[in-house]
Design brief:
single chain, about 250 residues, alpha+beta, 8-stranded antiparallel sheet, 3 helices, 15 strands, globular
Length: about 250
């Protein structure tokens, strides 16, 4: 049988229920990881931020100039604004690279790409613009791409997560354009691994005979410096399209 209670008791019960739930909600929000920060454990393990979420400290345009105005910080993300084109790249853009040089490293970051967009994460870049006009003349690249919209996705070894033009992903784990993808790149003692959204999509060995044969069969065959260096800068590519990066952090190994 349904029992009727005075209204004031119903109101008090609801208020008490809401107060009981409130600390849990606050705790959940407090425990949510903040973007572009390091946990105490990460700091203890030697991780450092490459992007602080506020400005472009630690980055410059390939060749030594300050990062251009098309690279913007918005809502805690590092965003490339393609409003004004300059050939296949962007006015005020160009590839940006880290001020620091890294040997063995473990890189972690998130990216999302605009519809039909293209970008890339390049590593072991040698910043000598006399010998090497572009970052990708020396640095291997993890492809950043809208697989559903960009024509490069029709080319083998050019899809998101691939070791560009060298090795295809073991399986595709990329998310659609407009969604965040989590990436890790680890290079240690000649072993290179890519992870995309938790999946180890590429594993290979650098600098041995098999690596040299990979390069010889690729578009980089006529670039004598490509893939030969054991330390260099990390770069984010301007391929003329809108792209966002965040939570960019690295640990020297």
């Amino acid at each position: 049988m349904f029992r009727q209670y005075p209204i004031k008791f119903v109101v008090i019960a609801l208020l008490m229920q809401g107060m009981a739930c409130q600390p849990a909600a606050q705790k959940t929000a407090a425990e949510a990881p903040a973007f572009n920060t390091l946990s105490a454990e990460e700091s203890a393990d030697g991780w450092e931020l490459l992007f602080n979420g506020s400005d472009l400290s630690g980055w410059h345009k390939y060749g030594g100039a300050p990062a251009g105005s098309a690279w913007k910080v918005e809502d805690g993300t590092l965003m490339l604004d393609p409003s004004e084109k300059d050939g296949w790249q962007i006015k005020g853009g160009g590839d940006i690279v880290t001020d620091k040089v890294f040997g063995d490293f473990h890189l972690s970051l998130e990216w999302k790409i605009a519809q039909n967009g293209n970008s890339g994460i390049v590593f072991y870049i040698q910043e000598d613009t006399v010998l090497y006009e572009h970052t990708w003349k020396t640095g291997p690249e993890m492809q950043v791409l809208d697989n559903a919209g960009h024509p490069d996705a029709q080319i083998e070894k050019h899809r998101a997560g691939d070791l560009y033009d060298l090795i295809s992903c073991s399986q595709e784990s990329v998310k659609p354009h407009g969604e965040w993808n989590q990436v890790e790149i680890k290079s240690q003692n000649g072993q290179l691994d890519f992870w995309l959204n938790g999946v180890n999509v590429v594993t290979t060995t650098l600098w041995d005979e098999a690596w040299q044969n990979l390069i010889a069969g690729s578009k980089f065959a006529d670039m004598p410096g490509f893939g030969t260096f054991r330390e260099g800068r990390i770069g984010l590519q301007d391929h003329g399209d809108m792209v966002w990066y965040r939570n960019v952090k690295i640990r020297a190994l």
